[in-house]
Design brief:
Helix content: 25-40%
Structural class: alpha/beta
Oligomer: single chain
Number of helices: 11
Shape: globular
CATH class of the largest domain: Alpha Beta
Strand content: 15-25%
Low-confidence stretches: none
Strand order of the largest sheet: 9-6-5-10-1-11-22-2-23
Number of strands: 23
Radius of gyration: 21 Å
Mean pLDDT: 96
Length: about 425
C-alpha cells in the first residue's frame, strides 16, 4: 500500500539475528516484513548505497569503492562525496520528477544530489591547522539553521576512537527538526552505529549487542517522534548495507607489491612513502577487497600472480576475469582482490614501523591509500593511531557468498515484499518507489 511518507534507514552491519537485541525494530518487523538483503560486491558503504539508489550494480553506476584512484593526477581520494560521480539515473531524480520532497541525512556521494534537503559532514580545514566543525547542506543555509537549535553534528563521535551513539542521536534529532518544519516526504537516514563495535570487537561480541540496543533506542525515538508530529501514513524501511564477519588475519598487499619490485617506495626524513605515480603497481585497499592499479599492461600478470593461491585471498582477478565479481569499469583496478571471510586488507607498505609516514599515526583520509579501521584504536592521551592491524576483529566487503555475509531488510508494511524472501540491494530502489504514494 502506498504511503505519504517513507523513512529509509540505512544501517550497515545489521543482521536478522540482531533483532534479539532490538525490541523496537523487532516489533516493526513482526508487524511488517523481514527478508535477507544480499549486497552486490564490493560490499562496502559507497557502492552499496549507490546500488540501492540506482538499482544498478557498480559496473554500471561506477562507484567501485569508498574512494577512487585518479589516474590523470596520480592521487587517491576516499569518501569523495560528490553525487555526479554516480553514473545514471538515481532515486533522487525519479522522486523529484514525481514532485516528492526529499531529505538526505549523512549518506555518501550525496553533495549536489536532486534531494531538496541535504546535510553531510564537510569540516573546514584552515591554513593554521585548525579544523572547524561544519556540514555541507542544501539549501546552503540549512546547516546553519540546524545548529541554532540542536548544535553541531558531532563529527568526533561519527568516526575514530570516540565514535558512539551521539552522532546517530544528532541525526535523528535533526531529521525530526526538519520534518516538523518542512515535512519532506522521503527521508534517507544513515545510521552507521553498528559499524564501530563490530570492527573493534567482532560482530558477535557483547559490545556489538550493546550497540544494537543503542541503535534500536534511536529507531524508537524516530518512530515516536514521527507519530508525535501527527504523521500517520508513514512506512519505515530499515536496510543493512552489508554484514560483518569475524576476522583473524590481515594481509598487506602493498608490502607484497613492494617486495616484488612493483611498488615504488621513497624515503624522506627517515620515513617511507608510497609513490603512486612511479609505482608499477600498488593497491587501494578497502576492508576485504582492493583495487590494484598497474601502470604497464605487461605487469598485470605479475601483479595478479602475487596473490593467486594466497591463504586469505579468495579472488585475484584481472581483465575479463573481473566480470566474475562485477568489477569491469574504467575506475577499477587492473587487478581486483577479494578476501576470504576471515581476512581483511591493510594499506601498510613499510616493514619497519619506525619508518611509517607520520600520517599513519593519525586519522587521515587524504594521504592513506585505503580505509584504516585501526584509527578507532587511537591512544587518546597521545592522540596516536597504533600500527597494529591485528587489533581489528570484524570486517566486510568480500563477495556475499554465504548467509553470514548477507544483511537484512525490514519493512513496517507487510505488502512491501514477502517475508523470508531474498532481496538484492539493486532491488531496493524499486521497493522505495512502490512505497511512495
Amino acid at each position: 500500500m502506498p504511503h505519504e511518507f517513507c523513512f529509509f534507514i540505512s544501517m550497515p552491519g545489521l543482521r536478522t539475528r540482531d533483532l534479539q537485541h532490538m525490541p523496537r525494530l523487532s516489533a516493526l518487523a513482526d508487524a511488517g516484513a523481514a527478508a535477507e538483503l544480499v549486497p552486490t560486491f564490493p560490499c562496502v558503504t559507497s557502492p552499496v548505497q549507490a546500488s540501492m539508489l540506482t538499482g544498478k550494480p557498480p559496473a554500471e553506476h561506477g562507484i567501485i569503492g569508498n574512494g577512487f584512484y585518479y589516474r590523470d593526477r596520480a592521487e587517491v581520494e576516499l569518501w569523495v562525496g560528490r553525487n555526479n560521480l554516480v553514473q545514471g539515473d538515481q532515486l533522487w531524480d525519479a522522486l523529484a520528477k514525481r514532485g516528492i520532497s526529499q531529505a538526505a541525512w549523512i549518506p555518501q556521494n550525496i553533495k549536489d544530489a536532486a534531494a531538496d534537503f541535504i546535510v553531510t559532514p564537510e569540516p573546514k580545514h584552515h591554513e593554521d591547522g585548525r579544523t572547524e566543525l561544519w556540514c555541507y547542506s542544501k539549501p546552503d543555509s540549512l546547516y546553519a539553521d540546524v545548529i541554532k537549535d540542536i548544535d553541531h553534528f558531532p563529527l568526533m563521535n561519527f568516526w575514530g576512537p570516540m565514535a558512539n551513539i551521539k552522532s546517530t542521536a544528532w541525526t535523528i534529532n535533526a531529521a525530526l527538526w526538519l520534518l516538523q518544519r518542512e515535512r519532506p516526504r522521503f527521508n534517507y537516514i544513515y545510521v552507521p552505529h553498528l559499524d564501530y563495535e563490530a570492527q573493534k570487537h567482532g560482530p558477535n561480541s557483547e559490545q556489538q549487542a550493546k550497540a544494537c540496543r543503542e541503535a534500536d533506542e534511536q529507531i524508537g525515538r524516530l518512530i515516536d517522534g514521527v507519530k508525535a508530529l501527527g504523521i500517520d501514513s508513514a512506512a519505515y524501511l530499515v536496510v543493512s548495507e552489508y554484514a560483518m564477519t569475524d576476522v583473524s588475519r590481515v594481509i598487506y598487499p602493498n608490502r607484497m607489491l613492494r617486495d616484488a619490485g612493483l611498488a615504488r617506495i621513497d624515503e624522506r626524513d627517515g620515513h617511507e612513502y608510497l609513490n603512486l605515480k612511479e609505482s608499477k603497481a600498488f593497491a587501494v585497499v578497502d576492508h576485504q577487497f582492493a583495487h590494484v592499479y598497474v601502470n604497464d599492461p605487461t605487469d598485470v600478470d605479475a601483479a595478479a600472480g602475487i596473490f593467486e593461491g594466497l591463504d586469505g585471498i579468495a579472488h585475484s582477478l584481472f581483465g575479463d576475469e573481473r566480470k566474475r565479481v562485477g568489477m569491469v569499469h574504467e575506475r577499477a583496478g587492473e587487478v581486483v582482490l577479494a578476501c576470504e571471510p576471515d581476512t581483511w586488507l591493510a594499506y601498510y607498505w613499510w616493514h619497519d614501523d619506525a619508518k611509517a609516514p607520520p600520517f599513519a599515526h593519525t586519522v587521515d583520509i587524504h594521504n592513506k591509500p585505503g580505509y584504516d579501521p585501526v584509527e578507532m584504536f587511537i591512544n587518546m592521551p597521545e592522540k596516536k593511531t597504533p600500527l597494529d592491524a591485528t587489533l581489528v576483529k570484524g570486517s566486510h566487503g568480500a563477495p556475499a557468498e554465504s548467509p553470514d555475509q548477507s544483511g537484512a531488510i525490514f519493512s513496517s508494511d507487510a505488502s512491501t515484499f514477502a517475508s523470508n524472501a531474498t532481496i538484492r540491494d539493486t532491488e531496493v530502489r524499486q521497493l522505495i518507489e512502490a512505497i511512495m504514494r
